[in-house]
Write a structure and sequence with these properties.
This protein is mainly alpha-helical and 170 residues long. Helices cover 61% and strands 11% of the residues. It is built from five helices and three strands. Strands 1-3-2 form a three-stranded antiparallel beta sheet, covered by helices on one side. β2 and β3 form a beta hairpin. The longest helix has 35 residues. The protein is globular. The two termini are 22 Å apart.
Length: 170
């Protein structure tokens, strides 16, 4: 948990306008409080399947921390790339050439948290919006502003977004 506390403290310091010792202390205390309050949720992936106390394996925790960092980096990169694509579409394409569409994507992710994270990641990416998840939770419907090839969009979502979400939320 100390790695997470340090990451949150560094984030706190990055968001401050001044780098002083009181800011560092406040950031550390806020980070410690957040990790303490969320420790049960954060340790859920390491439970042994029972309802008893959870076991935390430091190697798995470090691996999961790096997966989260990689996921956040991927999400930010995807958002940046989609913004550039949207700017290109708006500035250089004729309205008649833009082909919006709704695409049904079959889901492999099963958990509610995984489906929620996937839907939010799709919606945060400019040019796409999550519309609905089927009642059986096997299909998500998304709207894309420009669909030249529905199968390519479907494959991109499955291979890039859903695969990374499933590493964190099976």
């Amino acid at each position: 948990m100390i790695v997470l506390i340090l990451l949150l403290t560094i984030t706190w310091m990055a968001l401050q306008s001044s780098f002083t010792l009181p800011d560092l202390i406040v950031g550390f205390l806020v980070s410690f409080a957040i990790v303490s309050l969320a420790s049960r949720f954060l340790s859920m992936p390491f439970t042994d399947g029972g309802l008893g106390r959870s076991r935390i394996d430091n190697r798995n925790y470090a691996r999961l921390t790096f997966k989260w960092i990689a996921f956040i980096g991927f999400a930010l990169w995807s958002i940046l790339k989609a913004n550039l694509d949207m700017a290109r579409i708006v500035l250089f394409r004729r309205v008649a050439d833009i082909r919006p569409g709704i695409i049904a994507i079959p889901l492999d992710v099963k958990s509610d948290a995984g489906i929620t994270v996937l839907a939010n990641l799709i919606t945060l990416t400019p040019g796409t919006v999550s519309l609905d998840v089927a009642t059986d939770r096997r299909t998500i419907y998304i709207h894309c502003i420009d669909v030249q090839d529905a199968d390519a969009v479907r494959e991109d979502i499955k291979q890039n977004f859903e695969r990374r979400v499933m590493e964190l939320f099976p």
